Amino acid sequence: MAALLAATLAGLALCVAGIWRLEAERTGVTMTPLKAGTTPVTIYRRDGAAPAPVVVIAHGFAGSRQFMEAYALTLAQAGYVAVAFDFEGHGRNPSPMSGDVTRVDGTTRKLMSEVGRVTDAALSLPGTDGRVALLGHSMASDIIVRQALADPRISATVAISMFSEAVSASTPRNLLIITGEWETALRRDALRNLRLADPAAREGDTVDDPAGNGGRRAVVAPGVEHVSVLYSTTALREARDWLDRVFGRTSSGPVAATGGAIALLLAGIVLLAWPLAGLLPRGDAPPPAIPLRSLAIATLVPAVVTPIVLRFVETRFLPVLVADYLAAHLLVYGALSLSLLRLRGVRFGRVAWVSALALAAYGIIVFGGALDRYVASFMPIAARLPIIAAIAVGAVPAMLADSIANQGGHAALWRTVWIRAAFLASLGGAVALDFKRLFFLLIIIPVIVLFFTVFGLIGGCVGRRTGSPMADGIGLGLILAWSLGVSFPMFLPG
């Protein structure tokens, strides 16, 4: 009882501390919704700020406006008019991505046009001084570099985790390239692009163009990778200071490094799952450990067979990039694993429906609500609901198999690692067999690892309380379907 009380108090304290810090970063900033055509936009502006340059902020693949909020708040607090938006197919944008993703004159060109529309809408707002810069992460870095080349109004470009073949020795003008310390390949590319302007330049140097086309700088944010670079104090300060340099402004004070506060809030929600699970009906004794031979068969066979079988099956049935394949992969993998577990004499037990739905609600509404406000879009528009339902057809069997093999959270840690590593290996095998079509899965695999880590802990609390792997599996399957359904970009080729 004392441990549960301590967990409750600690979880509440973490949540309160996280929310307090996150809301404090918004103090004095007005966030105004706007539409640029069908594109949803949020305007971040410091209360009482004088007319200032616009900074259009673009997220990466499978991201959304919320993902870039640390930059939006930092720049708004510095007096800029920060304009964040959801690309087509992402977040709450109802228009799907379209075109050929492998061609510059395909999807890239369409997304450049969208940046142009957002720029036009932003510059028409009162309180702007007619100057504009672009800032983008990952996928968007190439989009904004190319748009800066095409649009003479763009005075500066901040490219985070950049990969683009459009950079030349002098264009785009006033280019800042930011990479995380652990983004080894992108760091090399950033240095290569810096040395187009000055072959002797090193990371951290600023190179001025003698022809008057501005400057160029490549900096490294210490101790971060492709996602955490978005919350790096160094990266945020460099972006702000670079824009100040270009626009002749001076800003000071702290930046909105919200990553730590987000971690506090989400850790608190995960920790609270333990005492809250104690409110659920207590179930039967935990299921017995599955014999090692049976566990090996039920995990390794699906891991090998699933990508091979699906290599010869047409899986394009959803208007989303690779999520249709992932739904099919989950279904085949889960069905095979469940069948093999049953053939090996493993009992599945009863379904505790109240517990299953409680787990799903906690993951989607509580954890997901926090994500939606502070991290990334998690509440779907109507067009995504059928996608979530279709993915659930595969996600629920896969998570049922995972939970049964894990004994509803009672399995030893090495067994859990084995079970989930086998599934991830099967996704890796699928990419290897059809890299051209499924290479986007490589971006999603870290997200699935995070899902197993975070929601696996929450589901384990429910499974251990109820003694029902079925409840754990159904709840996790619904959460996984929801998470994938709101994250994958909606896409219509052509």
Structure report:
Residues 51-161 form the Serine aminopeptidase S33 domain. InterPro entries: AB_hydrolase_fold, FrsA_esterase, Hydrolase_4. It comes from Bradyrhizobium oligotrophicum S58. Keywords: Hydrolase, Membrane, Transmembrane, Transmembrane helix. GO terms for molecular function: carboxylic ester hydrolase activity. By secondary structure, this protein is of the alpha/beta class. It folds into two domains: 24-259, 3-Layer(aba) Sandwich (Rossmann fold), CATH 3.40.50; 278-492, no CATH class. It is 54% helix and 13% strand. It has helices spanning 2-26, 69-77, 104-123, 139-150, 184-197, 233-247, 259-277, 292-310, 323-343, 353-374, 385-405, 413-433, 435-438, 441-466, 469-487; strands spanning 29-36, 39-46, 52-58, 81-85, 97-98, 128-137, 154-160, 175-180, 206-208, 215-221, 491-492. The strands form two sheets. Strands 1-2-4-3-6-7-8-10-9 form a nine-stranded mixed β-sheet, with helices on both faces. Strands 5-11 form a two-stranded parallel ribbon. Helix 3 (104-123) packs across helix 4 (139-150), helix 8 runs antiparallel to helix 9 and helix 8 packs parallel to helix 12 (413-433). The longest helix is centred in the last third of the chain and has 26 residues, at 441-466.
